[in-house]
Amino acid sequence: MTVTVERLKKRADFLRVAGTRRKWVTDGLILQGAPRPGIQPEDQSAGEDRFARIGFTVTKKVGKAVVRNRVRRRLRAVADLLAPDMALSGWDYVVIGRQQTIERPFDALVEDMRTALRRIPDAKPSSADRSRPSRGRGKAKGGKRQAGGSVK
């Protein structure tokens, strides 16, 4: 069954997909996936919202702009090849490029994406990353709120 594939463009959608912490890591890419909220299973729906959305991101750790753009183009080519046949309708995917993506042979990238698309629906959500500090305000060093206005 072929699925219509659209692009994921809004930051809020990228964050929602990442927030589910459902991902599959391969040598050439990382695939995150999440079902869109409010979408019914295919057997209960009347055909509405029968498309998948895919977004792409590559961090600055991978390289400068030219390298990141090349990685993104390679990932788009792989997704355009496989997503219509393998992506689940009603799902959003985020493909994250890695440093190995640029040198990885195209056939290996295709196989990486095929494996990730097959495995992502059954992937268990990963645990929260405890090495990162939590964002927000409220507590100063030492775990207690500072009284007064300025900290010396």
Characterize this entry briefly.
The chain has 152 residues and is α/β, with parallel strands linked by helices. It is 30% helix and 18% strand.
Number of helices: 3
Task: Tell me the series of helices and strands, N- to C-terminal.
Answer: EHEEEHEH
What is the CA–CA distance across the termini?
Answer: 64 Å
Q: Widest sheet: strand order?
A: 1-4-5-3-2
Largest pleated sheet: 5 strands, mixed
- Strand fraction: 15-25%
Number of strands: 5
Specify Rg, calculated over alpha carbons: 19 Å
Instruction: Determine the mean pLDDT.
Output: 82
Describe the overall structure:
The chain has 152 residues and is of the alpha/beta class. Helix content is 30%, strand content 18%. It contains 3 helices and 5 strands. It has helices at 11-19, 65-86, 106-119; strands at 4-7, 23-25, 29-35, 51-57, 91-97. The chain has a 5-stranded mixed sheet, with helices on both faces. Helix 2 crosses helix 3. The relative contact order is 0.23.
